[in-house]
Each structure stands twice: as C-alpha cells, then as structure tokens.
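Field guide to reading this record: the first block holds the primary sequence, the second block holds the structure written as discrete tokens, and the final block holds curator observations. Each block starts with its own label. This record concerns GH18 domain-containing protein, catalogued under organism Cucumis sativus.

BLOCK 1 — SEQUENCE
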Amino acid sequence: MAFLRFLICSVFVLTFTARAAHMSPSPPVKAAYWPSWFSESFPPSAVNTALFTHIYYAFLMPSNRSFTFDLPETTRAELSQFTTSLRRKNPPVKTLFSIGGGGSDSDLFARIASNAKSRQIFIDSSINTARKFGFDGLDIDWEFPKDTTEMKYFADLITQWRKTIDREAKLTSRPPLLLSAAVYYASEFRTYGEPRSFPAAEISKSLDWINVMCFDYHGSWDTTATGAHAALFDPHTNLSSHYGLRSWISAGVPRSKMVMGIPLYGKSWTLKDPYVHGVGAPAVGVGPGDQGILTYVQVKEFNKKTQATVVYDIRTVSAYSYVNTSWVGYDDIKSTTTKVEFAQANDLRGYFFWALSYDSGDWEISTHASKAWVEDQY
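BLOCK 2 — STRUCTURE
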C-alpha cells in the first residue's frame, strides 16, 4: 500500500512542472466545517482540536435587504460559545465563519458584489462580526457565480475585502483577519451555465487560500451508474480531483494557496444487477441514506449491520461497499490518507473536511489524516 501511495503521488507530480525548492512553507491547514444545525448533538466543545488547525462555523448569511449580518440573539450566543469553546481547548484552533453554503441564495451574493457601495456595507459588517465574536477569519462559500459577469463581481468583492481587512488591521494594530473561499473543484466551469473561469489572479492576490471542493462529482442527479463521488483519478472523464487541482494550478493559483477538500460522507445507488458492482456499474436509482447520502458514521453502521463487502478501488482511490443491490461509495482510511499524502507531496497548503460531525465517534478518519500530514517533512 505504501508503494501504491508513492506511485500515485509521483504520477501527480510528473503531471505538472518541476516542483520548486522548499524555502519556508506556509503553516499547513488541517481544517473542517462545523455545521451549526448539529450544535445540540455535536457542540464545539466536543471537537478534538489536536487534529485540526482551523474550524469553520457553517454558515451565516447577510440580510437580503441591508446586506449586513443582523443576527438573532440565539445565533449571537452560539457564535460566542463557538469561538470561546475552541479558544479554550488544548490546543486551541483558529476559527472562521463561512458565509453562504450550498443551499444559500447565490443571487444575493451577486447583488451585493455588483457595486462598490453594497460590497463595502457587506464587508464592513463581516469584519465587525468577526471581531465582535472573536473569529480569526472569514470564508465565502458562493455556490456559484453563474456567468462571466458574476465572476467579475466575485473578483471585485474579494479585492475590496482584502484591502478593507488590511486597512482595519493597520488601524487597530491587530493581526489581519484570514480570508478564504470555498470554490468549485476546477478553476473553470463547462457545465451549469455559460463557460466561465474563476478570477485566478485576484484569488492569488486577495485570499489566504481556497478550499477546493473535491467531491460531489456524482450523485442523485445521475442514477444510471454508480460513481466515486470524490475520485482522485478518473480514467474516463475530467470528474476527478487530479483534473480539478491541475486546472487551478494551470490557472496560476499558487499551490500554497490551495486546500484540498475531502468528504466525510458517501453516495449510494441501487444496482441494476447485484453481480455487477464496480465503480461505474449500472444502477436504477439512489440507495440507502437521505436521498442517497450517508455520513461516514452511517456508512460504518451500514457495513456492519448488513455485513457488506468492502472494496478498495485503486483506479479512483476510493472505497465502496455493497450488499445485494445496495451500493455505497465513500472515502475510507486508505483513500483519505492517500489523498492527504498526495496533497502534501504536491506542495498544497493542506486539506479540509466536510463535515466535522460526520466522522466516527473515535475520530477515525480525522486522526489518520492528521498523522498522514508529516509535520517535519521540510
């Protein structure tokens, strides 16, 4: 297995230009998003901070009228508890709050980012909120700018945001807030609207890093075949992390500003034929879980309860399990640690998980991922 990981990392390195000599690399990012809707069952005090460097509060949204963060008292209390709890942990971690999310109003972000005045109102409110509740930074999860015009708005937003953050830090003599963004797995879109690309130059200049969402390549929108929804490689299509990360590097975003996303959940299908069960096998619908989605905890329970057969797929660097016509694809310890080693071998900044509470009770995946990132490599 060690040789396989070495081979995978070597292949990836050879795909790009020669690696630069190591000077003083940026501190690694071992991050995870904390879904606030699980606050009662999974409070921030339950986080094992020894395994992470940054934790994201997910999510906040500005008002669709004022463009400011007009938060109810319950949310304000939760934000205070979040930062206080994680700051008191040993070791402490840095905290950011993420704005948006997959189900948020993309049109609202476009309205905010469309002119300098509304951008400034939003930016000032975000900085004030971060300072008020003790956050170390901010994250924008705009899914996704839908055309070239909105991509320009995104560029304008992060450029103005960075200038305001730097100005605020200078005026207050505080460390500048971190600024990151969750982005599509590839730097360009060739589906979901007109062809368009993220503004790589502005991203490189204005953001501390990007969280590249290297997952959701397959799912309930295509029930004709199973798929490795976070495939590192795909021999048949461009739906792979290898392709996506290569596109970001080719666009000019520094490797030191790229954080690779790893899912703590699986996607399921119902097989057409229980005897044909590989990645890409014919399917007739979604399988177990909530609309074909199971957290890693639920995958483990499914495997144990059904005594499912577990297979590691070398081609895609993923795992899947099946029993009768039920099929689940996910990342296990092997695929996760291989991806982490792959990220570090290629000088990426780090990795992040969606989502924190989906790991097993003993932090199985997170622990192995943290150990796989060798701190003294350089």
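BLOCK 3 — OBSERVATIONS
The domain at 2-263+331-372 is CATH 3.20.20.80 (TIM Barrel).
The chain has a mean pLDDT of 93.
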